[in-house]
Design brief:
This protein is of the alpha/beta class. Helices cover about 50% and strands about 15% of the residues. It is built from 21 helices and 16 strands. The protein has a seven-stranded mixed beta sheet with strand order 6-7-14-11-10-8-9, sandwiched between helices. Strand 12 and strand 13 form a beta hairpin. Helix 14 packs parallel to helix 18, helix 15 runs antiparallel to helix 16 and helix 17 packs across helix 20. It is globular. The termini are far apart. The structure holds nicotinamide-adenine-dinucleotide and zinc ion.
């Protein structure tokens, strides 16, 4: 495989038990590069095992040896270097490593690490017990040490979550990350790598980066040019968003050499219609838009779906870019290529799968989003953690206060992670054929019931999803899948973000009727997306109507 010339080496880090060394070896084989493990080098040089160095000479001496070994390793070329889990904490090491190549971190939950280390110890009792296991509460020790290193692990170029993958799958993910980062490299960034890439969506039809950052709008033109886009850009936006960001975006695009036309539509879900699609077609015809001109969707999910639908259909498809400005759009609607308009008889009945060329989310735009819209958006962020990433749930729990205040650094991290989870799911199942994308519907069955029973007027989507997730968790508990502590934990998290967890004044039969009409039903039985644990999702089609009714009764506030 050919890689970007500027990437000299590949560094693999991560906590003990994440498989660094084995993965590095496998990646080296895949790339036909050399392989080096700094821990092995230290053992070779000093002639004694690492535990002995720690015991006889102390940790400080070990770190000294480690620094020296890393310094030497960095002089290599085309080498996959596995480094010890604590090495990256040292700023000198980090700087050296970051200069020489890409850093990939292998992640795993504390429980997974504990299990792996424990298993390893059981299989090879002759080797020394790892210091991590040699204490009263090894799991807690792993948790603490891991938490203290997390800020450093967060500072890498690419992260692979290894919990559910075997060594060769992890290696594949590492290589995929490397390829994508190289492909979307921007000239200004270190080693030619664009640090704004939160994730890459990779489908059969298109592979594109999702950029997430604070103040990123300023770099829209630059990133478009880098992606080899040029010519005329048509900005499609709604009145609210355009009045705030329209002239700024127009200016940025013009400065980057684009010819810019803008078409502004009224805000609100009614605009997501065939009527407005036709108005935009008329505008494009009038301006003689050509096939390689660019559509830019600047706004929330409504604008994204509508503009994307026009991009998919006008001249049989034009390049397009999502610039999401609502939280829902940043973590959900802009990723995955579902575009479309509503029909008077149903939402999203007319549409297509049509992937954008890039997504650029500037988290700073959320500072002007109305509070209720913002709160509603957190429901989808939380959902992503609940279905696939317990650690992300922990992150949201510890930082809700600063996140809801839109603290730039944390906000960017939360959005990047949430977008990456959505990207990962849609990359596996672009067209919702294999059922893998279904897990994104956690909380949505009841939510659709609530929305339809109130003619989409009472709840914002995220509010309905929050209540729906409480329902789905309670259902999971009734089926014996989920402990009550987890149900309460989820509820508490939703409340921390200001989301509702009950409803009142609704006729339950209206809700169930609307749920049976929900289009996500396969055959007759509803496919329920449920939880087995926080971060672990299951799908069940054998849920009885009584159970559902009982849960709805629990959700209905007296
Ligand atoms: N394609 C998908 O996969 C997908 C996924 C989820 C939702 N959606 C669709 O997305 C839509 C909902 O998205 P939404 O919640 O973003 O709604 P929206 O686009 O209607 O935006 C909500 C409101 O916020 C305003 N707004 C947006 N950004 C702003 C900003 N930065 N500052 C001030 N005001 C701002 C908008 O003008 C609007 O009034 C629905 O049509 C839904 O069907 C699509
Ligand atoms: Zn949703």
């Amino acid at each position: 495989m050919k890689l970007d010339r500027r990437i000299t080496n590949l560094i693999i880090t991560g906590f003990s038990g994440t498989g660094k060394s084995l993965v590095a070896k496998e990646v080296a084989r895949g790339l036909n590069w050399d392989f080096l493990d700094t821990d092995d080098e230290i053992v070779k040089q000093s002639g004694k095992p690492i535990a002995e160095i720690f015991r006889q000479d102390g940790e400080a001496r070990f770190r000294e040896l480690e620094r020296e070994t890393i310094r030497k390793a960095c002089q290599q070329k085309q080498t996959v270097i596995a480094i010890g889990g604590g090495a990256i904490v040292n700023p000198q090491n980090y700087e050296l490593l970051a200069k020489t190549g890409l850093i990939v971190c292998l992640e795993a939950k504390a429980e997974t690490i504990y299990e792996r280390l424990f298993r390893e110890a059981a299989y090879s009792p002759e080797t020394e017990v790892r210091p991590l296991l040699a204490n009263d509460n090894p799991l807690e020790r792993i948790r603490q040490l891991k938490a203290s290193r997390q800020p450093y692990y967060a500072n890498v170029d690419w992260t692979v979550h290894t919990d559910n993958l075997n060594i060769s799958q992890v290696a594949e993910e590492v290589i995929r990350g490397l390829r994508n980062l190289a492909k979307f490299a921007s000239p200004s960034a270190r080693s030619g790598i664009d640090k704004d890439v939160a994730c890459v969506v990779e489908t059969a039809t298109q592979s594109y980066p999702v950029f997430v950052g604070y103040g990123l709008l300023d770099r829209l033109g630059e990133k478009m040019k880098k992606a080899a886009l040029s010519g005329t850009a048509t900005v499609i936006s709604d009145e609210n968003v355009f009045s705030l960001y329209g002239s700024k975006v127009e200016g940025i695009l013009k400065n980057a050499g684009f010819v810019v036309n803008s078409f502004v539509v009224p805000p609100g879900e009614e605009t997501k219609s065939m009527d407005y699609a036709i108005k935009i077609y008329d505008f494009l015809v009038e301006h003689r838009a050509e096939r390689d001109d660019i559509i830019i969707a600047l706004g929330g999910g409504m604008v994204g779906d509508l503009a994307g639908f026009v991009a998919a259909t006008f001249l049989r498809g034009m390049p397009w870019i999502q610039v999401p400005t609502s939280l829902v759009a940043m973590v959900d609607a802009s990723i995955g290529g579902k575009v479309g308009v509503n029909h008077p008889e149903g939402k999203n009945l007319i549409g297509a799968f049509y992937q954008p060329n890039m997504v650029l989310a500037d988290c700073e735009t959320l500072t002007t989003l109305p509070q209720r819209e913002l709160t509603s958006g957190w429901a989808e962020v939380i959902k992503h953690g609940l279905i696939l990433d317990e650690e992300f749930v922990q992150f949201l729990e510890s930082n809700f206060n600063r996140l809801t205040k839109l603290e730039p650094g944390l906000l960017t991290r939360a959005i990047a992670r949430s977008a990456a989870i959505k990207a990962q799911v849609v990359s596996q199942d672009e067209r919702e054929r294999e059922g893998k994308r279904t897990i994104l519907n956690y909380g949505h069955t009841i939510a659709h019931g609530l929305e339809a029973a109130t003619q989409y007027k009472r709840f914002l989507h995220g509010e309905a999803v929050a209540i729906g997730m409480v329902g789905a968790a309670k259902l999971s508990q009734r089926l014996g899948l989920l402990p009550s502590a987890a149900v309460e934990r989820q509820q508490a998290l939703l409340q921390k973000f200001g989301l509702p967890t009950v409803f009142s004044g609704l006729d339950l039969t209206e809700i169930t009727r609307a749920m049976e009409l929900d289009k996500k039903i396969k055959g007759k039985a509803i496919r329920w997306v449920l939880l087995q644990d926080i971060g672990k999702v299951v799908i069940r089609s054998d849920v009885s109507q009584q159970e559902v009714l009982a849960v709805l009764q629990e959700l209905a506030e007296a």
